[in-house]
Design goal:
This protein has 256 residues and is of the alpha+beta class. It folds into two domains: 155 residues, 3-Layer(aba) Sandwich (NADH Oxidase); 58 residues, no CATH class. It is 54% helix and 11% strand. The protein has ten helices and four strands. The chain has a four-stranded antiparallel β-sheet, sandwiched between helices. The protein is rod-shaped, with a radius of gyration of 41 Å. The protein starts with a helix and ends with a helix.
């Protein structure tokens, strides 16, 4: 699969089959993490691969008892090296850049796992101090994330993604593109808008015609009542009726 397909189809998997994953596949995922971007290419991360079930049980206990941590085929605990980053970038490097770098590595690993047919999930809720004890993590390092991997035993639901128009600004915070669908070349919204406008115009025409008809009827009724003081207006004789009446008069005159 290509990059965009991998990104768009990846989902968090929390239920795994009881099937081991070979060492080569594990190291392919680790390598993907090592290729992530980092501030100044510091690569200030360390990866601890955990496949010992006793250790996984202890980690699970101190990760709010999340079953995916224990049921996974293996874990990768990502640790940062804030002291190294602080030497180059000061306090901001220690507090922020190290977190960003490890996050980039975590995403690389999750995408790589999905691309080769494994499922994975990102666990951030854990007791940091207990994690240090369990995995002998020195004070100079800091555990940032736990990634659980294995062959998926579930099919996750379709992911709901926020509309780009809601989360995207241009040139300043809060500045949006009025017609984002034009940028994305999605003209279906234009057609929908035109159809709605056509329906609105037809509804207005119907109302206008209905009102005009009502006015004509009221006017005709009013005129009918005014002719003959309320009596129906007499129908004017047609041309042929007048001609017949005139011919009848002439016949009468001749007979006299």
């Amino acid at each position: 699969m290509d990059a965009m397909e991998c990104i768009s189809t990846r989902r968090s998997i929390r239920r795994f089959l009881n099937v081991p994953v070979d060492f080569e596949t594990i190291m392919t995922i680790v390598e993907a993490g090592s290729l992530a971007p980092s501030s100044g290419n510091m690569q200030d991360w360390k990866f601890i691969v955990v496949d010992n079930k006793e250790l996984m049980a202890k980690i699970c206990e101190h990760s709010l008892g999340q079953e995916c941590v224990y049921n996974a085929a293996f874990l990768i605990v990502i640790c940062s090296d804030p002291e190294q980053t602080e030497l180059h970038y000061g306090l901001r490097g220690a507090r922020l850049y190290t977190v960003q770098n490890c996050a980039a590595a975590a995403q690389n690993m999750l995408l790589a796992a999905h691309a080769i047919g494994l499922g994975g999930t990102w666990v951030g809720a854990f007791d940091e101090e207990k994690m240090r004890e369990i995995l002998d993590i020195p004070r100079s390092a800091r555990p940032q994330a736990i990634l659980a991997f294995g062959y998926a035993d579930e099919v996750p639901d379709h992911k709901r993604v926020k509309d780009l128009r809601v989360i995207t600004y241009f040139n300043a915070y809060g500045t949006t593109v009025r017609n984002m669908h034009h940028v994305l070349k999605d003209y279906s919204l234009d057609w929908e808008q035109r159809i709605n406008q056509a329906h609105t115009a037809l509804d207005r025409l119907k109302e206008k015609t209905k009102e005009k008809t009502k006015q004509v009827v009221e006017k005709a009724t009013s005129k009918s009542k005014s002719d003959g003081k309320g009596k129906p207006a007499q129908k004017k004789p047609s041309f042929f009726t007048k001609l017949k009446q005139e011919m009848d008069k002439r016949r009468i005159d001749k007979s006299k």
